[in-house]
Amino acid sequence: MIDFTISPGHGGSDPGATGPTGLKEKDVNLKIALKVGNLLKNQGLNINYTRTTDMRYSENLSADLSARARFANDSKARYFLSIHNNSASNPTATGTETYALAPGGEGEKLARAIQESLVAAIKLPNRGVKFANFAVLRETAMPAALVEVCFINNPKEEALLRDEVFLDKVAIAIAQGVMKFLGRQWKTQGTPILGPASATIAQAQEWARQNKAPQEFVDLAPLYWQIAPARAGVDPAVAYVQFAHETGYLYRDGKSMAGIDANWKNPCGLKVSQGGGNTDPNAHKKFVSWEEGITAHIDHLAIYAGAPGYPRADTPDPRHFPYIAGRATTVEELGGKWAPSPAYGEKLVSMLKALQETTVSEPIPEPKKRAIKLKIEGDCQIRYDEKAQELIITV
Ligand code: ZN
């Protein structure tokens, strides 16, 4: 059972529209379509594509379109989605629109869900849901929608379409719109950065001690558990293991990194706004207090994770750039983004698992000592037997 047939518009000898610097619509459409398909597969949907390469079914346009519709019909897909980018003679034409065949059906609902999600994510002008008698909408047997992401002939929007970060954002938004239309919850793959604390302060401190972290590092755990949830909804355990990784457990082995030590109060290698070399201490931000440094760390993670309210104006994060917003919602996705290594995220995840699995032995409470009065009436002898350590009362 195919849930969605995804059809990347144009292909082969039909480039679709071409941008002012030569970007071809057919190539962008294919990239977005494959990204959307992969995301939806990860959400558990069955997907097929009318094309996954640079091809067309026929040199005749209407025969090509009919073949795409037939492909979806033959595969008995439940829904059909065509992906395009727009073009107009006016180079300032801008915005997003999504088409359905006619008002009132499932096709319109699908189009509306995609349009809403896409506009909210990429924030280009909302041109709305429109209706058109397009062949792929008309000849498909199932509810169908066609999205025009933005205007490839507009130099600014063509530049966006060359940007992988933008294309990822587009694909996520379309896929999330589809899931919303289906009434299915969007599942985050991997280890979320945002969320309640996934471990306790006591576990974090025990984990730090087991890793021979200096006392200063152990003592900073409560500050993470205080700042991360309240300020940004960041899981403090994620931030704390990143602190350990970025500073080598606060320079546990006695070595500072390139002249940077605990005096920098910089828990995650944050650089100054203008950046600089990894080994240049002056390229790294020196914070006045741990509270400030940890707040900057949390804000930097929160903007990556696309936390609500981020980017924010009141931040000590020197590199709080809007373009990183929402680039990594999971710890795994930080790889290749926060740090160049693609394995960076996996490293943090393994540290996080170890922290979460740390058991904290509850100290056995000492029996409470309290003084009581002993009143003995009548004649008696009291002696203490040293050997037996007993107090003997003979009446
Ligand atoms: Zn097109």
Terminus-to-terminus distance: 92 Å
What is the succession of H and E elements?
EHEHEEHEHEHHHHHHHHEE
Secondary structure category: alpha/beta
Report the helical percentage. 25-40%
Number of strands: 8
Distinct ligand kinds = zinc ion
Mean pLDDT: 94
Which spans of ≥5 residues are poorly predicted at pLDDT below 50? none
Strand content: 5-15%
Cα-atom Rg, whole angstroms? Answer: 31 Å
Which word captures the global form?
Answer: elongated
Query: Can you list the strand order of the major beta sheet?
Result: 2-1-3-6-4-5
How large is the count of helical segments? 12
Q: Report on the biggest sheet.
A: 6 strands, mixed
Description:
The structure is a single chain. This protein has 395 residues and is an alpha/beta fold. Helix content is 38%, strand content 11%. Strands 2-1-3-6-4-5 form a 6-stranded mixed beta sheet, sandwiched between helices. Strands 7-8 form a two-stranded antiparallel sheet. Strand 1, helix 1 (25-42) and strand 2 form a beta-alpha-beta unit. Helix 9 packs antiparallel against helix 10 and helix 10 crosses helix 12 (344-356). The mean pLDDT is 94. The chain binds zinc ion (ZN). Zinc ion (ZN) is lined by residues 9-10, 16, 25, 84.
